[in-house]
Amino acid sequence: MMQNSRIVRVPRSRRSRDQGAVLVVGLVLLLVLTLAGVILARMQTVEERMARNEDNHQLALQGAEAALRAAEAALSCCSSSMNFAGNANGYYTLNPNQGSVVDQLNTSNWSAPTTLTYTGPALNAVQSYQSSRYVIELLPPVAPPGSSIAAPSARGGLSVQLYRITARGYGGDGTSTATLQSVYYIP
Q: How many Cα atoms within 13 Å fall on the side-chain side of residue 101?
C-alpha cells in the first residue's frame, strides 16, 4: 500500500521574510568576528612594542653596568695617574658650591670630551644605539670605615679617597637610556 503524504505549503510572503533574516544575522556575525580579529591584531602589536621597549631598556642597563664596572676596574689599578685637577675628559673634582658635574649634564652632552667611552668587550650580539659612557668624580676624603669621624689630626691623618662613578647606557634604537651610579673608595 502506498502512503498518502500531504505537502504543506507555506505562504509566499512568510517564506521571503525568513530568508532575509538569515542574511541579516549572518552579516551581524561576520561584523562581530571581524571586529574581534582587528582587536586581537592590535593587542598583539602593542604587546610586541612593549617587549621591544623592555629589550631596549635591558640593553641600556647592561651597557651602563658594564661601563660602571670598567670605571671601577680602572680606578682600582690606575687612580693615581688620573688627572682630576683638569676637570675635563671624564675626570672631575666635586665642587660643593657648583654641585655634581653629572647634574649639569643633560642627554645632549653625554659625549666626548665631557665623558669617557666604555671600550670593553661587547655585551651581546645586538649593537647598542651608542656606546656607553661614564664620568668619574673625585669626592672629598672621609674617615675610613670603623674609625672616628673626628678631625684628620685626631685619627692620625687617616682618610679614604672616594670616587663617584656615573655611567649611562643606551638601548638598541636610542629610545631607552639607563643611568647608574656607584661610590667607590680605595682604602
A: 25
